[in-house]
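Entry 12.
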Amino acid sequence: MAPGRRALVLLAMVAIAVAIEAAWLAPAALIGPHVARTTGGVLRLADAEGTVRRGQGSMVAGAARIPIAWHVEIWPLLRGVVRLQVTSGTGAETPRATIAASAETVAFHDVDVTIPAAAFAAALGQAVVGSVAGEVNLTAAGVELTPGSSRGEARLDWHAAHITFVGNALPLDLGVVRATLTAGGDALSGSIDNAGGDLALRGEWAMRPEDGLRLALLLTPRRAGQVELAGALSAIGTADGAGWRVDWRVPLR
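Predicted 3D structure (tokens):
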């Protein structure tokens, strides 16, 4: 390599190293606006301390505050991958997740996170539900989201599940709602069922870029003679035997 070109390459490497170091030493508080913008305000990062490379703060979802800490690995950056380790800010086993993002792919590994169910309702808007209560636990060994070739599986368990539909003041107790998630191609899909509560819930869900979120459910009261509950179900679904079929399509914002 010619001396002049060697000097230019060395200068470029030094500039890259300085840029990475400057970014890593930037205040952690700079991450907050990016989190809020990416999640549409559903999640916020508060009380951030440390740097972009290594810091801690509280992830805020509705009224809940979840202490977290993070660490960005250096070597994947050389391959154009931002690999982020997220752990509990209190030293607990959860929440935890490993997130790796590149130009085309976002991958999640060893995920175990519990967040308020209200955060999901906020993400979907108010077209379907008025309010929800309870906590949703998300676990996944590995999910990779890539346009046209996503793959992986995850599980969601919604504990102490309660939901109130728009136009109906009656909150429904759904017990523990269980949902699977399978990523394939451009779609996410899975099954839904529950244990306990006022209703037996069975169905499927799917999320596709062109269709948004679709829920196809059969809701069946566990006890006969619940007039108020039957009225609420009639407002959101179509009678089918002892239950009501509900088919919702929710555009994603």
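Annotation: Residues 3-25 form the longest helix (23 residues). The longest strand covers residues 129-145.
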